[in-house]
Design a protein that fits this description.
single chain; alpha+beta; 5-stranded mixed beta sheet; two-stranded antiparallel ribbon; 15 helices; elongated
Length: 418
């Protein structure tokens, strides 16, 4: 169908023709995906029949149209309806189709849900959402001040539930710890967000704890770890973090059996900061030789080489390595497939890098609780994209006490138990 376009590329309605094309495509693609999903669902259950030979799963027209806010704007979606007359033998309830593409409750795409807390952290008030996003999305549906306020309240409730959840049924074998400094309406100028991310026995990564603290102090970390222990958290086998003494002092107090591992990325940055720029390229290569060594013995030799090369001129930089010579190579006692994960606190840094870049100091009204809840929702969204560690089946062996030398399994859990 032909559309009248003005010289500046806009349509009579005032929107760009390119935007109109994009929204039309955004409207059609969900329809195609939903049709394909329903067709595949029915095809898989075509043999399900009742006593009279009639099919139990059949098409039944369409649901009422629904408006969904997407990154391409507000699109109208008309989902196919399915009559699923199968009954669960255990509960006696019917088993309706639950669409993975368009859940019954969905009114906004996940991307929009991620944008809203970001805008709040930037200082945008709830009353400014409609004028800020209406022009971009083509509609203000679902973005009223009341809606945003309700979402903020729900985020705080979700964060509170996360903070109080029971940890007795979850086993975190590895944990990464770091203090993230975000300029997001925290009450103390030197406040930061203390973060724990853990690896479960099945190899999946999960946010363990998320709480504000003061300067990454030992007491702040101890308070967080004590709370985790109170809720049933078992002592991890290995904890990975930077050189901040506060965390390690708290860890020794709350989980004394947990082994320590320093983050090589932060350690390298600390070493180079103690050297002139002219010496940094060579020193960086020497540090890399340590943590990329094939085994603990070669790493120890690389440390000796580093001391010989730089000990006389830069003793403060060398001391940063030698003081942690026992903790830095600790990852060699674990599966080689896990070394890439255990060398650094990258799971935390990569998650918070975009959050840190997109937040700033704001003067608008806002509470500490609301700010933390918004950051929590961003991390929760990012968590859905985290992948399991390499060789996840080996994580359970680490918890069972299996021994690894040069990254290879030499003693199975059965032998340990015997």
């Amino acid at each position: 169908m032909l559309t009248v376009v003005t010289e500046d590329g806009s349509t009579p309605s005032g929107s760009s023709l390119l935007d109109e094309i994009g929204r039309e495509g955004a409207r059609r693609m969900p329809a195609v995906a939903l049709e394909a999903e329903v067709n595949a669902y029915i095809a898989d259950l075509v043999d399900e029949r009742d006593d009279k030979g009639r099919r139990l799963v059949v098409r039944n027209g369409y649901h009422q149209p629904r408006q969904v806010i997407t990154a391409a704007g507000v699109v109208e979606v008309k989902a196919p309806r399915v009559n699923d007359n199968r009954v669960d033998e255990a509960t006696g309830e019917r088993q309706p189709l639950s669409s993975a593409n368009l859940p019954p409750w969905c009114r906004k795409s996940p991307k929009i849900s991620e944008v809203l807390p970001l805008l709040c952290l930037h200082g945008l008030s709830s009353g400014d959402f409609v004028p800020a996003l209406e022009q971009f999305l083509g509609s203000s549906a679902g973005l009223s001040a009341a809606t945003v306020t309700r979402l903020t309240t729900q985020w705080q409730a979700d964060h509170a539930a996360f903070t109080d959840r029971d940890l007795a049924e979850v086993d975190y074998v590895y944990v990464w710890a770091d203090g993230i400094h975000l300029n997001v309406r925290l009450e103390e100028a030197k406040a930061c967000v203390l973060v724990l991310i853990g690896v479960r026995a099945d190899g999946s990564e999960e946010l363990v704890a998320f709480k504000d603290g003061y300067r990454e102090s030992a007491e702040s970390w101890a308070d967080l770890l004590r709370d985790c222990a109170r809720r049933g958290m078992r002592a991890p086998v290995l904890a990975v973090g930077d050189g901040a003494l506060g965390f390690w002092k708290a860890l020794a107090e709350v989980f004394p059996t947990t082994r320590e591992r320093r983050c090589w990325v932060q350690k390298t940055a600390s070493v180079l900061d103690a050297m002139p720029k002219s010496a940094q390229p060579g020193a960086k290569k020497a540090v890399q030789d340590i943590y990329n060594a094939e085994d603990r013995d070669r790493a120890a030799q690389a440390i000796k080489t580093f001391v010989q090369l730089y000990g006389a001129k830069f003793p403060k930089a060398v001391k940063k390595i030698t003081d942690d010579r026992d903790q830095l190579p600790a990852f060699y006692d674990f599966p080689a497939e896990h070394w890439i994960h255990l060398r650094t606190t990258n799971p935390i840094e990569s998650t918070f890098s975009t959050v840190r870049l997109r937040t700033k100091v704001t003067r608008g009204a806002g509470s500490r609780t609301a700010a933390l809840a918004m950051v929590f929702k961003l991390v929760e969204s990012a968590q859905q994209r985290w992948r399991a560690v390499n060789a996840p089946h080996l994580v359970d062996l680490v918890r069972a006490g299996a021994r690894f030398e040069r990254g290879r399994l030499v003693e199975r859990p059965e032998a340990v138990a015997a």
